[in-house]
């Protein structure tokens, strides 16, 4: 279980990115975090694994306080938090298998990691994960030869190689075609459920959030302004999160993308 209480982030220039955000996420629940640009969505996600250091508040994972960890303990905790990035964060010149096995770098010795000599059970697990994310047979392909959707699937497999207690996902579909974006969102939600891992997904696409997440959290100006099931998200809620016009524009743009997908080959 993830428990966040009164999370605050104020930058040195005085900008207050988060203003006392609180959230509890039980095991296996998928939570979509939505809101306009600058609402604090990415800061919220990155405070949890301390890529950004919070100014105040509490973050507990299975009862363990994360905000007070020093460098060594923080590294150990990060091994247990899988992160899926918007820009994939793959090493382009390495193979798919090498990128997936990078998820075990924090759990093997330095020499093993340097020589890329991973235990047989890690290699076997990597093959299993590649099959599960739809990339069976791609293990020897270079990352830079893959499509955007395939790269994101490698990133998902790499995160799961850590055997995480929590998944943090930062804009996983923003650079993908609508059809591929839906398949990636579905995959993340399925995997979180199968492994009973809580997942927080920062996502700009309201339609995907409502269609796949079990719960939606809306941020505006660094504050939680909505927290509830997708079925409770109506025009009034979207207006509270985005403003009167912004959410309508977002849905209109999504519809236009779907209509124009037509003759384009969807990249998977």
Automatic annotation (TrEMBL):
Coarse class of the protein's main subcellular location: membrane
Record keywords: Cell membrane included? yes
Q: How does it sit in the membrane?
A: Peripheral membrane protein
Q: Which GO terms describe its molecular function?
A: ABC-type phosphonate transporter activity; ATP binding; ATP hydrolysis activity
> Which PANTHER family does this chain map to?
AMINO ACID IMPORT ATP-BINDING PROTEIN, PHOSPHONATES IMPORT ATP-BINDING PROTEIN PHNC
Where, per UniProt, does this protein localize? Answer: Cell inner membrane
- Which CDD domains does the protein's record reference? ABC_PhnC_transporter
The terms describing its cellular component in GO are: plasma membrane
- Pfam families noted in UniProt: ABC_tran (PF00005)
What the entry lists under NCBIfam families is as follows:
ABC_phnC (TIGR02315)
Q: What is the official name of this protein in its record? A: Phosphonate ABC transporter ATP-binding protein
What is the phylogenetic placement of the source species in the record?
A: Bacteria, Pseudomonadati, Pseudomonadota, Gammaproteobacteria, Chromatiales
* InterPro entries with a match to the protein in the record: AAA+_ATPase, ABC_transporter-like_ATP-bd, ABC_transporter-like_CS, ABC_transpr_PhnC, MetN_ABC_transporter-like, P-loop_NTPase
Q: Which keywords, in A-to-Z order, does the entry hold? A: ATP-binding, Cell membrane, Membrane, Nucleotide-binding, Translocase, Transport
Q: Any idea where the ABC transporter domain is?
A: 2-246
């Amino acid at each position: 279980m993830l428990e966040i209480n009164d999370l605050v982030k104020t930058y040195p220039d005085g900008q207050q990115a988060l203003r006392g955000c609180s959230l509890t996420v039980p095991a296996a629940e998928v939570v979509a975090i939505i809101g306009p640009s600058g609402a604090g969505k990415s800061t919220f996600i990155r405070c949890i694994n301390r890529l950004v250091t919070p100014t105040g508040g509490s973050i507990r994972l299975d009862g363990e306080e994360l905000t007070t960890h020093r460098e060594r303990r923080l590294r150990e905790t990060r091994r247990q938090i899988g992160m899926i990035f918007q820009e994939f964060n793959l090493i382009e010149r390495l193979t798919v298998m090498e990128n997936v096995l990078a998820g075990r770098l924090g759990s093997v010795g330095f020499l093993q990691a340097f020589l890329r000599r991973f235990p047989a059970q890690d290699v076997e697990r990597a093959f299993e994960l590649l099959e599960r994310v739809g990339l069976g047979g791609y293990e020897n392909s270079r990352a830079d030869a893959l499509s955007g959707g395939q790269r994101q699937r490698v990133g998902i497999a790499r995160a799961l190689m850590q055997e995480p207690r929590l998944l943090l996902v930062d804009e996983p579909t923003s650079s993908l075609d609508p059809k591929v974006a839906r398949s990636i969102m579905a995959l993340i939600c399925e995997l979180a459920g199968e492994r009973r891992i809580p997942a927080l997904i920062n996502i700009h696409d309201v339609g995907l959030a409502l269609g796949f997440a079990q719960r939606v959290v809306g941020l505006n100006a660094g504050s939680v302004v909505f927290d509830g099931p997708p079925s409770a998200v109506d025009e009034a809620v979207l207006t509270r999160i985005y403003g009167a016009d912004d959410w309508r524009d977002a849905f209109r743009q999504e519809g236009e993308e779907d209509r124009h997908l037509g003759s384009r080959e969807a990249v998977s």
